[in-house]
Hints:
The complex is a heterotrimer. By secondary structure, chain A is α+β, with helices and mostly antiparallel strands. Chain A contains 18 helices and 32 strands. The longest helix of chain A is centred in the C-terminal third of the chain and has 28 residues, at 520-547. The chains are: A alpha+beta, B mainly alpha, C alpha+beta.
Amino acid sequence: xxxxxxxxxxxxxxxxxxxxxxxxxxxxxxxxxxxxxxxxxxxxxxxxxxxxxxxxxxxxxxxxxxxxxxxxxxxxxxxxxxxxxxxxxxxxxxxxxxxxxxxxxxxxxxxxxxxxxxxxxxxxxxxxxxxxxxxxxxxxxxxxxxxxxxxxxxxxxxxxxxxxxxxxxxxxxxxxxxxxxxxxxxxxxxxxxxxxxxxxxxxxxxxxxxxxxxxxxxxxxxxxxxxxxxxxxxxxxxxxxxxxxxxxxxxxxxxxxxxxxxxxxxxxxxxxxxxxxxxxxxxxxxxxxxxxxxxxxxxxxxxxxxxxxxxxxxxxxxxxxxxxxxxxxxxxxxxxxxxxxxxxxxxxxxxxxxxxxxxxxxxxxxxxxxxxxxxxxxxxxxxxxxxxxxxxxxxxxxxxxxxxxxxxxxxxxxxxxxxxxxxxxxxxxxxxxxxxxxxxxxxxxxxxxxxxxxxxxxxxxxxxxxxxxxxxxxxxxxxxxxxxxxxxxxxxxxxxxxxxxxxxxxxxxxxxxxxxxxxxxxxxxxxxxxxxxxxxxxxxxxxxxxxxxxxxxxxxxxxxxxxxxxxxxxxxxxxxxxxxxxxxxxxxxxxxxxxxxxxxxxxxxxxxxxxxxxxxxxxxxxxxxxxxxxxxxxxxxxxxxxxxxxxxxxxxxxxxxxxxxxxxxxxxxxxxxxxxxxxxxxxxxxxxxxxxxxxxxxxxxxxxxxxxxxxxxxxxxxxxxxxxxxxxxxxxxxxxxxxxxxxxxxxxxxxxxxxxxx
Amino acid sequence: xxxxxxxxxxxxxxxxxxxxxxxxxxxxxxxxxxxxxxxxxxxxxxxxxxxxxxxxxxxx
Amino acid sequence: xxxxxxxxxxxxxxxxxxxxxxxxxxxxxxxxxxxxxxxxxxxxxxxxxxxxxxxxxxxxxxxxxxxxxxxxxxxxxxxxxxxxxxxxxxxxxxxxxxxxxxxxxxxxxxxxxxxxxxxxxxxxxxxxxxxxxxxxxxxxxxxxxxxxxxxxxxxxxxxxx
Lengths: 758, 60, 161
């Protein structure tokens, strides 16, 4: 594979020194002069009318400077699916009705947090409780309480995907099986909770420091809901302490702090407590899944039918996208000649369900891969062989949906098979399970309805050769800052230390839609590459005058050396040409621009990553406890840009996805989350992480910068499925509900032994 | 049966309204089809369609 | 509530502060002394993001009253580097990419410092136990363990630069 100067070399994260010296200032750390502290009063009812709110007592408490309720807002129902007005259904600060436990009804700003808390207790809210419904199959029934007036049977969104003749294909199948699954919710558990510092000044401008994955979305949504001009709102987010899908929609911290600040013209800081974070922020979409698959007895896939009912929670949020993507990725990464998917998102009186790393695909892949292993078993075919027979290939077109260009899944299967063979005979009570996936590198559909390019970049080269790179992308830990600096350095022919990156500020940065759906490397990367290419071209024009080659494009820049490609020893220093170029442009610094919007690339994404993961797990037959021993992943992310970054993303993805598979859950009682703290909600700790091994399968993706595709999100898709299959192979029981807890394993084993005895 | 599958497959408002106007309930049938093994939802709709077909007069 | 005098040495600098007795150590470090490197991820002492060294022992600064540190020596992440020279652990973290969003990193570094002070030659299991209380959502821990192991194996001598 191609060798690059910067790309695919071990580079220190450009924010590294700030982070390891504790100097990185997150929104959590921001303090402004005369700043007040805010707290939010939240509904204790899952479904109730708000009859009256009295704030007089709270306002009179010494130290309290402002109190706001829904009556202080413009009453605008906002939503991130701006293209469809009926999906814009969330006021954030409720006015007439509350629809989930934890929904904000009032907010207070005071001189310190303790005073603000005290004031919350003095706010008198008169509720009229309404009957509530908490589960999607209950909420869709005739006569269930109506959560939104416009949504009959509480149906929020429906989605349908179909190709081929499913019914014909089922008739031709030798073997058909139906399975039902329950996929659970999951909390993002960012180490930095949602927080914002809003400062409204007498100039009529609002500045909001916030922990976000998309400062652009927050800017636009805030301006909309506050009735302000978009560019009178400034959103700043230099460091974000984790996002994972929870931080690109407008949240209560941002909205309430802005409202409070506007009332008193002072900065107001709101930091959600960990309990609020669990209770009242968005979470992974739980799904009830029906899958029916028909195959030939030689294992060829013929037809698949999927029906999904998702628990929507109280508002649309990004749930509409999760609904579509779960149906789309249900068919990945295989060639299904015919497929039909019907998805229904149903409102319930629970915290809204939305986007979380994987976006509906981890749920889909868990169900699909569990069923595939059962099919393999039934037909007597090796699980790898069955998959190999049916996987996608470069050039495959998912009918009417997507065109797959690079696809290294076959090589991934080979690598994993090799590893499994090398394990030989396993110790007792252990099993190895595999799962295969494919995932998108950024989404195509413009549901936010933005007129801007999906990503932009601006470059300015200064007299000393330092390159100012302005991007709109947001680094929430996934490393996009470093990735962009590397792409710029590679394309322009300089070093990472020559790049000075500007990001995280709507006032100074060009628009990028944000860090979600795995779009930054491909989309912002392409924009950066285009800008760098333009800057290089401008420099080469001046170099041409000096070096007099036959044609301009016979030259290139590598490691600060501008040279003739054919005769690299003939060249001139980058620094010298920069000086020439600036003089030549009337003393103006070199400015270049780049942008990227996918056009005519199918319905979903310009490119897809692929991978296969194997999990080796040990199951204690007496307690049902699962212990992860090994996790091996072979994945294809096209060209690796930042190898240290990719490895980190893989290991982090495994921890998160394994948690989804067997330790994390949000059990509720009448809409109330029972474990809103970090002791009872169990994310993986050091001792639960397995040994991880990764094999890079290199392909070249024409759509991506230098052939790169996504890595961080696709890798959360397979682990739950692989884990489930490992448990199946270790114990003989297939658990179809997440998380796979010891209780479920024991119950299933008991059931199995009972059947054996009969 | 094929027509029943087609109606479920398209699932748009016009089809839903037609089913609902005939005394059945589109959502209920879908729930039955999703939650119970076998083809009950489709079968129920197919039976209805057969009955309805008999009522239609085709011009000669 | 009457304020009390707190005498505390943080990162080898002596401070005298008047604080409310119920103030937590983490609040004094962050709000009074402006040392925001130490973070908070919860209110229940469960995440260990607030880990600092108190007289050499690692403690959760959210679970310690500031007055309990009266007369004591406290080390925070800001004290690891020396006039811009990074400590071996910090350099190892950089090389291994042992952080992503960075919010848990201060706590990790302090727990690791305490671990290596006590046990300069830990096994991988010892390291896992040593930082077991520190939660991280981004890295999956393995890069952090590799970084600490590398320091323990002597790959980052103090005088190397």
